[in-house]
Amino acid sequence: MAHYNTVFNQLLNMLPRHRFESSVSEYQGDYYTKHFTSWNQLLVNLYAQASSKDSLRDIETGLKVQQNNWYHLGLKSAARSTISYANGRRDYRIYEDTFYQTLDKCKDVTPKHRFKFKNPLYTLDATVIDLCLSLFPWAKFRKQKGGLKLHFLLDYRGQIPSFLVITDAKQHEMKIARSLSLPLSWDSILIVDKAYIDFKWLWGLHNKGIYFVSRAKSNIKYRVIGQLPANKKKGIISDEEIELTGYYSKQKYPGKLRLTTYYDKETKKTYKFLTNNFKLAAYTITQIYKARWDIELFFKWIKQNLKIKTFLGTSKNAVLTQIWTAMTYYLLLAYIKYQSKYKNSLLYFTRIIRESLFRRLDIIDLLNLSLIKLQKLKEPSYQLALF
User: Fold this and answer.
1) Res 45 pLDDT > 90
2) Which of 355, 334, 228, 332 shows the shortest CA–CA distance to 282?
């Protein structure tokens, strides 16, 4: 039988180690460090994500059981006090950089989105992570509530987050959007909900050659300047060229817009969609906005399957370190899934990884195993010693 490193070690080998060390040097992550390096901290936090550990004690115990595998990892210590100190003190921006470094690698293997048009497609939205105010006083949201807000730009090529900003939960989505320099090419299509309707910001996107699709607000003031063909068989009630007539909105967005009215037979509701794209069919515009639901599913997935709701430390640095590491783990899973053309769900894949983290199996062979077959594999025997 061929010799393999552990599954966990193979995961770590997919990280851009050289670029990681450059970030460590930039933020002096290993300054005066003798044993528990920035790399050790990353692998311990990734282990916590992959094995769904809820506490520092669980991490310490789990790694002690696997101590004979440490020589593959270069890990010399896994004491919970050491982990806690590093998460609280070592600059979280090292792990923010790791996320983007892994993202660059992941983009090379992601599949195309499901639409026929070739324009890159994205959704911009945010989700709130609730925090206990007594434990996280720096994250005050309301009088008796704490929280963080994660602002994501979701790329429909592979359903991966291509941009993430973490703020306190009080920050409005639109305020953050105005301050961002989004990594969008000139022909991209950006889906946003009504919270992002700011005509000055939308006009800025238009001038950069970026298309947007959103729901129109009910109080929008406009006049119709042209009619486009409406395919009523597909639920298109009307497709109109409009210009804004509100005093301030017209100054902020002086160009023409497209207003598509659509009747959805499934929900039995009528929707109005606003866009600056006049090239795509009206029905395609409606389906583009319908695809915005994917980011809600993404939010649900990461909250249920990543450790971003329970935290290993209470300081801001520790929380941000854990979130960036969690999202890096998500990218690693996506990278393996798309590079190997794995057909099962990402959820099923996370369960396979969790059950086999320290097994000596080739990770490609692992993808072809069912959970039942995996459990039938012979477990390594450990000699327990009593002292």
Assistant:
1) yes
2) 228
